[in-house]
Design goal:
By secondary structure, the protein is α+β, with helices and mostly antiparallel strands. Helix content is 26%, strand content 17%. It has a single domain, classed as Aspartate Aminotransferase, domain 1. It is globular. The relative contact order is 0.17. This is DUF6194 domain-containing protein.
C-alpha cells in the first residue's frame, strides 16, 4: 500500500482535512514530508483535537524503532482506540509491551511512542496489512467523528 493510496483512501472519508506540510508553510521542519488527517467538517484544523491518523516519513528523537531512515520507508499511525488496540496486540494500551515488541514492516503493532494512548502503527504497509490498515483508518475516523460530535453537541447523519 503506497502513501498515495492511503492519502486518497483517508482523504475520501467525510469531513477529513488532510494536511501535508511543506517548506515555507510555517510548519515545523520535523513535520515536513509527513501527512496528518483530522476530522474537521468545517475544513479548519481543530484547536483541541489531535489528528486521528498520520503518515510519518522519518525517524524522530525517541522514535527510531521503525527505522524510517531507510529509502522510501514510512509508517502509518492510527488512533485506533482501546478496543482495536487490544484486539491487535492482545493487551490493554497501558499494559507494558513485551520485550522485543514488533517493529516489523507490514505488521500491525503498538505505536512505539503513543501505544499507551491506544495508537497502532504499520511500517511500510503491504499485502498482509492492506485490509487491516483500511479498517483501522475507518475505525479511527469513526472515533474522531464521534468525539467531534460529542464536543460540539451535534450528531451525524
Amino acid at each position: 500500500m503506497t502513501q498515495d493510496e492511503i492519502i486518497t483512501f483517508t482523504s475520501g472519508m467525510d469531513g477529513v482535512l488532510t494536511i501535508r506540510p511543506v517548506p515555507g508553510d510555517g510548519s515545523p521542519d520535523a513535520a515536513q514530508g509527513d501527512t496528518y488527517f483530522y476530522y474537521a467538517p468545517d475544513g479548519a484544523v481543530p484547536a483541541t483535537a489531535q489528528p486521528f491518523a498520520t503518515i510519518v516519513t522519518k525517524d524522530l528523537p525517541g522514535d527510531t524503532t521503525s527505522h524510517l531512515d531507510r529509502p522510501g520507508a514510512y509508517r502509518v499511525n492510527v488512533a485506533a482506540g482501546k478496543e482495536e488496540f487490544t484486539r491487535w496486540t492482545g493487551r490493554a494500551p497501558r499494559d507494558p509491551a513485551p520485550a522485543g515488541a514488533g517493529t516489523d514492516d507490514d505488521t500491525v503493532t503498538a505505536h512505539p511512542v503513543y501505544g499507551a494512548a491506544g495508537w497502532l502503527a504499520v511500517a511500510n504497509p503491504g499485502p498482509r496489512t492492506r485490509t487491516a490498515a483500511r479498517e483501522l483508518l475507518t475505525t479511527a475516523h469513526r472515533l474522531a467523528r464521534a468525539r467531534h460530535e460529542r464536543r460540539s453537541g451535534t450528531t451525524g447523519s
